[in-house]
Design a protein that fits this description.
8 helices; 211 residues; two-stranded antiparallel sheet
Length: 211
């Protein structure tokens, strides 16, 4: 690999490696098929890039020589461009996947918890409704994870994606447990806040901090 390619390899964002990773499994796929697969696998433990991002990364990977594409023949009603990983792409991906120093810590951005953090500005019932909605969505996601697990379970080439999906199943189960605990915490806090508010009214509503 040339020094120019080495430099470009180091500059690749995680999304590019994820798209190349989708291509590393047997078969050739269109950008649309890659998006569908990302939606039924990657999004459960990482994220699913937009279709525009997938095509942008495919162009980048082709420029690097990590992927190759070919248009379908006249036998198909609508011409499609299918992509496949190259030997150079597989070698680069294997190097990146085995480099644990690049993995980095997991990043949690929990929109619901951000709203709970600002719960002093919200109605308690509204907060509880948001948690309830989150639990409903999580149950739906858990069902989708299990469906993906069932599809991957009988395919030997998907043994490692199946492990990632199994981890995601456990993570969604833990999220349900955390959500139920949060509902209990909100209920308990509601009584405390109500009592404190009544005490503030009787005491003139002093601020909870000195000064």
């Amino acid at each position: 690999m040339t020094s120019s390619h080495t430099s470009k390899k180091q500059d690749l964002p995680p999304t590019a490696w994820a798209v190349l990773g989708l291509l590393s499994f047997p078969g050739e796929r269109t950008g649309y098929e890659l998006k569908k697969w990302a939606d039924s696998s990657l999004r459960f433990f990482y994220w699913s890039p937009a279709i525009s991002q997938i095509y942008a990364e495919l162009r980048r990977l082709e420029e690097l020589g990590y992927a190759a594409s070919a248009r379908s023949g006249p036998e198909e009603v609508r011409a499609k461009r299918r992509y496949a990983i190259t030997d150079a792409g597989r070698e680069a991906l294997a190097g990146w996947a085995s480099d644990t120093a690049e993995a980095g810590p997991p990043v949690l951005k929990h929109g619901l918890l951000l709203r709970v953090w600002l719960g002093h500005l919200a109605e308690p019932e509204r907060l509880r409704a948001m948690v309830g909605g989150h639990l409903e969505r999580t149950r739906g996601e858990l069902a989708a994870v299990r469906e993906a697990m069932a599809q991957a379970g009988d395919v030997p080439e998907w043994a490692f994606p199946a492990l990632a999906l199994r981890w995601s199943e456990r993570q969604h189960l833990a999220e349900l447990e955390l959500g139920e605990a949060l509902l209990a915490d909100l209920a308990e806090l509601g009584g405390v806040v109500k009592g404190a508010a009544e005490g503030d009214r009787q005491a003139g509503g002093d601020a909870p901090t000195p000064g």
